[in-house]
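QUALITY CONTROL LOG
STEP: pairwise intake check
CHECKER ROLE: data steward
CRITERIA: each record must contain a sequence immediately followed by its structure tokens, with no blank fields

ENTRY 1 OF 2
RESULT FIELD BELOW
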Amino acid sequence: MTTLSDVLNIDVPFPTTADLSLQIRLGPCRVRFTPTDGPSFVAGTYSDQTRTLPLEVQTQDGVVTISQRFAPMSFSTVDVPQLELGISRARPFALDIQAGASDNSFDLGGLPITRLTLKAGAARFETDFSLPNPTPMTLLELGMGAGSFVARHLANANFGELRLGGGMSASTLDFSGTLQRDAHGRIDGGLATVDIVVPSSTSARFTAKAFAAGKSVVGLTAKGDAYYTAPALEGKHPLLELEVSMAFGNLTISAT
């Protein structure tokens, strides 16, 4: 489905396959997600006043792909296209988002996401898990380019494994929320600034390696080669374990 009109209405029914996946591929675009209880898997609108970035919506073997296609016309950066999607909470699904030169902020709270991949280029990206994910997430994978990234309430994502790779980026990772099970994460940054915040009431253990990078740890207790919150020192679970490796950047870890 492709259109060059100003507004495209999107209505994608649930595929009949057992496994669901939603893939979103975007360049310049502003995005808003809203959890819904509607009958459709994905529904919403796409507005492109420039008529230079038409949207394609395809479904194949349980995979729904929503992507922008560049049209060889005069492109204006003044009226950036807007994509508003209502995503159903009725069935668990995997979510894969790749964004280029965009400025996006959206909330994934309450959506039953089984696996999340989020990769951004020269973009400003903010995401929030304001409500707990009702489905265990096997992997939360984040890849950042030369932009900025803010993630809030990451404990609510209900992930088992987290991976983050950042180049020349500025990332803020807020692990507030409620851990539902033990979780492990690995964060690698080069020429990056990474700020990690965890509530002091969360059981968390950090190991941090910094090569030619600044490191600041506030509100945690050093023991051996690791840093602990008070509940982690007491051996409480669920436990958040994070391994952080930084080169030529700056790392801050704080418990508040």
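ENTRY 2 OF 2
RESULT FIELD BELOW
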Amino acid sequence: MVDGFSQLREEIVACRLCPRLVRYREQVARERKREFRDEEYWGRPVPGFGDPNGRLVLVGLAPAAHGSNRTGRVFTGDRSAQFLVRALHATGFANQPTSRTRSDGLRYRDVYVTAAVRCAPPGNHPRPEERAACLPFLRREMRLLTEARAYLALGGFAWDALRDSAAVHYGVARPDMPFRHGAVAVLGPNRPLLWASYHPSPQNTNTGKLTFDMLADLLRRIQALWAAPRAPIASA
């Protein structure tokens, strides 16, 4: 399994399939934000990170231009990362409440974190063809994450990507559950559940659309299911 993840990581980091994303991520890495002008930017696709035996898989949208595109680790170095990792720490998934650099000592327990698109997109808006080019990476992660019992999409874009990938991977119809915070899609008996949350972006957290308690409570709801026998959950 470790070898499989290592090979996948190498392929992700070397990917240049989307010309627009390649140009943008490398331009950002050259020009840099004034706040980080003395740092060396990653400027490449960002692979997943976490516990390869995790029962929970988090799926975000894409690297932030001056977050993961700078640090080289998913959900690291920006305000979205700080919000998310603080919630993961509060619920026992992370060993610390901060995520600033690749060398900051962050470790995840029972959770693997990845994204629908691996390169920072202009305006934080990937195009449909860019999402399609990246989805095979997510499906390969699904094959490697054999202990996964729940997937949590952060935002509507990740929700769509997750439903598409899960349908292909598990050989089921694409779940028709619309996106909303706390939505749950059922793939079938003895298969993982797909969960949805608002994305922990400042746009959502600063306005109160997503609060810390909302995200932490959702993570605890997922954990509670693991501690009890599986029971059917209505898909509507």
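INTAKE CHECK: passed for both entries
DESCRIPTIVE NOTE, ENTRY 2: The chain has one domain: 2-226.
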